[in-house]
Design goal:
Oligomer: single chain
Helix content: 25-40%
Number of helices: 4
Strand order of the largest sheet: 2-3-1-4
Structural class: alpha+beta
CATH class: Alpha Beta
Mean pLDDT: 82
CATH architecture: 2-Layer Sandwich
Length: 110
């Protein structure tokens, strides 16, 4: 399966959110479910466990639109979300730079 990376045109009106979340089963589902219930598209997601093993860092590429503030407030109320912040210092093309590592990967049978 090939990685889906947003095109440059779609990156122009997006922003990156960084979340620090509890690292356990169901956390990703809770975060993405919040966006889905509000019909708010996630353009890209990156989630990496932190060295402590108890938390993960998530980067979410989302549309920069007025209702994003409300979604952020709702994210902060999720039990598994410990911290939410905008990351204007990170270039949105971080996902583009990672795509080559995924694009040639083939699915591995269990």
């Amino acid at each position: 399966m090939n990685a889906s990376v947003p095109n440059r045109h779609s990156l122009m009106n997006t922003t990156l959110l960084e979340l620090i979340v509890r690292n356990h089963p169901g956390t990703m589902s809770h975060v993405t479910g919040l966006f889905a219930r509000r019909a708010f598209n996630l353009e890209a997601i990156l989630c990496v466990p932190q060295p402590d093993g108890a938390t993960s860092r998530m980067l979410l590429l989302v549309a920069n639109e007025p209702r994003l503030e409300q979604v952020e407030r709702q994210l902060e109320r999720l039990h598994d979300v410990l911290h939410v912040r905008h990351r204007p210092d990170l270039p949105a093309d971080v996902f583009d730079r990672m795509a080559p590592a995924w694009s040639g990967a083939e699915a591995v049978a269990p």
